[in-house]
Each structure stands twice: as C-alpha cells, then as structure tokens.
Amino acid sequence: MAKSAPILLIGAGRMGGALLKGWLARDIGPLIVVEPNPGKDLLALAKKERIRVMTAADQAPPRLRACVIAIKPQILRLEAAHLAPIAKTGTLMLSIAAGTSIATLRKHFGRGARIVRAMPNTPGAIGCGISSLFAPAAIEPPARKLAEALLSPLGETLWVSKETLIDATTAVSGSGPAYVFYLVEALAEAGCAIGLPPLVAEQLARATIMGAGALLAADPRPPAALRRDVTSPGGTTEAALGVLMGADGLAPVLRAAVAAANRRAKELAS
Question: What distance in Å separates the CA atoms of residue 195 and residue 65, rounded to the nearest whole number?
Fold first, then answer.
C-alpha cells in the first residue's frame, strides 16, 4: 500500500494493538495512534517504528486516509463528538465498535460521513479471526478495498449485504469464540466426571478443540463429512452423538443461544 495520507487509529487496546502490529508488518502507513493513556509497550513500539502517538483526536492532522475506530461502544459514545471534525473532512471512518449502528454514528459525525462498519472477533488478536463488513451503497469500491486491507491483519474478511446482518454475524462469529471456550470448559468438566484428573481433562479438551479447528482449516470438506469420518457405526462417538444430536441436544441450545445474542445486538444498536 502506498504511503500517502496517514491512517489514524483510535484506541490501541487488544484489537487496536493487533491492527497496529499487522499494519506495520504489511508496511501500511504512515500511522497515528490516539490513546489517552499510552502504555510502555505502545510507546516503545512508537519509538521503534516512528508511529505518532496522540492523547486526543483533535490533535490529528486535517488530511487522513482513514480513521479506524477501535474503542468500546460506551467510550465511543463519549468520544464521538471529538471525531466529528475528522468525519466531516470526508475521511473514511471504519468502526469496529460493537452495537453501534451507522445511523447512530451519523448523528455524531454528520449525515454525509463516509462510514464502514465491521465486526471482528477476538482470534483476530493473533491473526486468526474473521471480520464481517457492511458499507452503504455510496461507499465507493476503492474505499471498500481500503477497509478490507486495514482489517486483513486480523484474518479473513467478508462483506454482508445489509447492516442488520452485522448483528447476526456478531451472534455467530463475534460472540462465537466464547461459545467454543465454554465448550472446552464443559468437555473438561465431563472428563472429570468420568474420573480424569482436572489438569489432564483440560489438556485433552484444549488439544482436541485446537486440533479439530486445525483440521477444519486444512480440509475443505463440509463439517458434516469430517464428523462422519470420526463416527464409526456402533462406536463410542456414535453413542455420544446420539445425545448431542437428540431433540434436546446441542443444535437447539445453540440456536437459542445465537438468537439471544442476535436480539441483544439489535437492542444495543437501537
């Protein structure tokens, strides 16, 4: 990516920090970071990589290539007014704040603000995540391409056709890592219940989920095909799946869980 006008990052927490390191690795810049309380790691990185660190958005230069908003929704509500002058210059505003609709942002930034909304997930902190993006029709292809490039350090990207689908992706991929972590907890607890020592049960559960995820990444076949590979007729896996795939099994519980997350995402965005 050619170095021209700077990229402004608002917030250098876990996700913002992952973006920053990814941009540096891809030679995306120049970079400016707004962080009211910059830590030692950020200051050291800034000194090493010649990143400009500011404590407030109103210190930013008038010409920017994009402004990436990587702060929590409750903080964004307090800081949005300070970002309005940047939005009014026509700068692309890329928001990864959960539960904050484009309509809400436009109330602060102005109706003409060029906004792309995205929902990454926590595996993005190690470059293994996925981010869903939505842009209004007025956002031109080069700006969409820039938004993709800025999120690519977090992992995969995909576009959704309606903003309401951002809430749905939040319920599946945004919150999804927590479901998987809970599955590890539950699997380890189940192992303990049949006699495994707690540390052994957790090690087995962690390695199993990690290995299954790696196999999903390596094998393009549908998950159902991979499941069938493990399931021998009359065997132990078939016995377990008889419970998990029953009327009161995992599928209806997950449907209810994802629906609850989707409802809450809509409530937060309203």
Answer: 58
